[in-house]
# Entry
Amino acid sequence: MTQPNPSALEALQEDADLTRFNTFGVEARARYLLECHSVEQLRAGVEFARDNRLGLLVLGEGSNVLFVNDYPGLVLANRLKGIVLEGESTLRVAAGESWHALVEWSLSEGLYGLENLALIPGTVGAAPIQNIGAYGVEVERFIKRVVVFDTELAQEVIFDKTDCAFAYRDSVFKRARRGRYLIIEVEFELLTRASPVLSYVPLAERFGAADATPRQVFDAVCEIRRSKLPDPRLVGNAGSFFKNPIVSASKVESLRGQGSDVPAYATDEEGLFKVPAAWLLEAAGWKGKVRGRAAVYDAHSLVLVNLGDASGEEIYLLAQEMASSVLQRFGIALQTEVLLV
# Structure
């Protein structure tokens, strides 16, 4: 086997414990682990994986991943740091920066737009992959370009916004072969004048017709999220486990015709509606259900939690049981938002 470069790969770990690298807190091991604080380390890790025919998995804070098994390849933990303000409103942010910290920092600098996305766990590099969204805003609205290291071309590549092919909780980075694109930096174009988005029902109810400042929206979003979602530092979880399914108008009509009062919200695509996965799961009786050491959070049916010593497999089996019951009852297939490894 090719030996690691002694300089760029001096931090390479073998048979590494991944428990602290995933917010579910499940025990898993990686054949190799490298925490990367520079692009040079990322490049060296990619070369090491390629030369030794290893799979490659990139992690930020591990807030959107479930390790069902040990990982037989190389895990790269992205720890790249740095925020650069160009002009009045353009931010270049390294992929390893904390997402929530960036939202807070931008507000303190008089830059707006991200406040609805407060308290979403994870790093900046994960944001475009998942096209994170919450409370009426998706991150694609503010992304200008994404700089990646393409492991197939072995070089840096710049994706303009249109190249990213953003969709609901999706992007070109998510659809590509796992490990192909390593996000190095994300460039944002934020607002210098406040323009709060209050379309999300709890925000609309809270503020009504009154003007709300970005800071008030930020505080409200944090309060709402904390009331619904457990702190992963206290209870192992990865936030929403399933995506909200997109269904046809005829499917909604069919369900309502069968006596279901299922809520549905129009999407940008004509004839397609978003149905809350949480509503489907709660209607199927999953809120608060316990299966051994894994459970559904008692305040939100879309969140699976580790009660202490659950394995990734236990949580995965619970998720499968939940999805199966929704399919059987409503004829709607749930897709995981969390990456299964």
